[in-house]
Amino acid sequence: MLRTEDCGLPAELAATVFGVGRTTIAAPDSARRRGHEPDRDDGRTPAHAVRKLPFADWLPEQRWYAGRSRTPFSVTCAASTSLDDVLDLVLVDVEYTDGSSELYQVMVASGGEREVEHRRLATIGAAGGRTGYDALYDSDAAHRLLALVEAGRPVGDLVFEPEPGARFPGTAAPRLFDSEQSNTSVIFGDEAILKVFRRVSTGIHPDIELNRVLARAGNPHVAKLLGSFETTIAGEPCPLGMVTEYAADSTEGWAMATAAARDLFAGVSGPDNFASESYRLGEAVARVHADLATAMGSDPAPFPLVAVLARLHATANEVAEIKPHVAAIEERFRVLTGEPVTVQRVHGDLHLGQVLRTPANWLLIDFEGEPGGPLYERRLPDSPLRDVAAMLRSYEYASYQLLGDQDDESLAALAQDWADRNRAAFCDGYAQASGVDPRVTDALLAAYELDKAVYEAAYEARHRPGWLRIPLRSITHLVAA
Ligand SMILES: Nc1ncnc2c1ncn2[C@@H]1O[C@H](COP(=O)(O)OP(=O)(O)O)[C@@H](O)[C@H]1O
Ligand SMILES: O=P(O)(O)O[C@H]1O[C@H](CO)[C@@H](O[C@H]2O[C@H](CO)[C@@H](O)[C@H](O)[C@H]2O)[C@H](O)[C@H]1O
Q1: Interval 284-328: pLDDT, tens
Q2: In testing the pocket of ligand 1, which one of 104, 163, 181 has its CB within 8 Å of the most ligand atoms?
Q3: Where along the chain is composition biased (Basic and acidic residues) (predicted)?
């Protein structure tokens, strides 16, 4: 049975009560142990009402809500900070009946009739005589949030931090980024993109951390970080969002690659068929790796046998189609026991949807690692081959998704040909820029590809069962090679 609570906290757990920014924060499970609901409302801000908004009904409608396959047990407002009279930053804790939990960030604009886009989706509901909206749909509120990052002043427990020398857009009109994402982004004119993290947790956010390091290293293959903001939970930093320069006139690598592969299928492709782009992309990834290694170091380590086996067995328990391949995959992993690799900070979830082609060059975005895992895990050093293998997998996706559920061998041969050509071009570019050809350690590279394909099998089984056959096909090929 779903239980919705509001989020007043006992005094000893409440973090702070500030001037404009009144913050109420504590570990969510502590919040539920409270015996009373202290009323902190001073009449100036609607925080009391904000905490009573019907988040339990609204959250499951949001595309970034990750709890659809689970049953919520309680939905609790764990923290709220009033940014001004009509804008509150709220952290909503969702606990599920299976014992798992998530903390979601919602920026709430409240008041009477507001000018908001997508009113039905944006309306959280009413409490205390006021209606609460998702503020990211509200252009005024989005501007106020951006202004807070630019000003860099603390509000309650919230810390807003502009990067040194960052130039923020002035009055550029904001628009909500309209696509499937795990976070929510607002674009300001052609100048900046504000990404508000939805599922938040304590730790250092790799997307902010690595973008900062690469911007300071002058790396040309990232969108320049302009600022970020975070809060504190139980003494730990909890990153909430970031602003980067917007790459106007850019196209996602996935759109370009799939268009090129489609041309080949239609018999209208030129001789290059994306290969020169793949070469330049390989160079860009190598330069990002080089700057990350220089700035953050690298170390020798053994091939991560325990981790890849753990993922394999967990996936086999979840995805029946993996079971027949387990022994063969395991063998591929076990021959690499003790095999030395070099580890450093890497992207961690690289694919053609995470790269943008600007008129000038390729940019890598979204350095947040594999979504779902805890932040500390996503920041662990890993082999650069992890990223290379992930890109190689993406070329197979780009061509094989065009087959749909057809088993046409001549089409499959075309798909493989396109993928092989672009995979080779990517590795050539990577080798040229790094001085190390990833194909030299072919068994290692294949093992990282296998590990990624196993991850993808779990991802597809959960999110896109119709695409499960793409990683399964690759697994069959990789273990047969
Ligand atoms: N700096 C940028 N310039 C232009 N478009 C961007 C930029 N950053 C992100 N995008 C667009 O927003 C989409 C989602 O961004 P991403 O960082 O991957 O969000 P999420 O973490 O929610 O997946 C990208 O696929 C890209 O199309
Ligand atoms: O972009 P996210 O960080 O959310 O990454 C997740 O979703 C990706 C799909 O959007 C998924 O990528 C897989 O599908 C891509 C095509 O849609 C393909 O290019 C990738 O190679 C493939 O792994 C990614 O694995 C997942 O973590």
Answers
A1: 999 999 999 999 999 999 999 999 999 999 999 999 999 999 999
A2: 181
A3: 30-45
Task: Return the SS3 of 453.
Answer: helix
Question: Which tokens go with 127?
Answer: 């409490």
Residue 207 in contact with ligand 1 by CB distance below 6 A? no
Closest C-alpha to 376, from 205, 174, 193, 154: 205
Which of 185, 221, 224 has most ligand 1 atoms within 8 Å of its beta carbon, as the pocket-test mutant?
185
**What value of ipTM does the predicted structure carry?**
0.97
Query: Is residue 252 in contact with ligand 1, taking CB distance under 6 Å?
Result: yes
- Judging by beta carbons within 10 Å of its beta carbon (0-12, 13-18, 19+), is residue 345 exposed, middle or buried? buried
The phi and psi torsions of 195 (rounded to 5 degrees) equal: -105, 120
What distance in angstroms lies between residue 365's CA and the mean position of ligand 1's atoms?
7
Full-model pTM: 0.88
Tell me if 370 CB under 6 Å of ligand 2.
yes
The residue among 287, 329, 326, 313 whose CA lies nearest residue 436 is: 287
d(C-alpha 72, C-alpha 319), whole Å: 24
Whether the Cβ atoms of residue 176 and residue 186 lie closer than 8 Å to each other: yes
Tokens 């630019």 identify what position? 150
- Whether residue 191 has its Cβ less than 6 Å from ligand 2: no
Among protein residues, the one whose CA lies closest to atom 10 of ligand 2: 353
Kindly report the protein residue whose alpha carbon is nearest to atom 23 of ligand 2.
Answer: 456
Q: Tell me, in angstroms, the distance from the centre of ligand 1 to residue 8's CA.
A: 35
Nearest-atom index, ligand 2, CA of 254 = 19
Residues of the chain with pLDDT under 50: 1-45
C-alpha 52/C-alpha 75 separation (Å) is 11
pLDDT tens digits along 214-224: 999 999 999 99
CA of 244 to the centre of ligand 1 (A): 10
**Positive or negative, the Cα torsion across 22, 26, 32, 36?**
negative
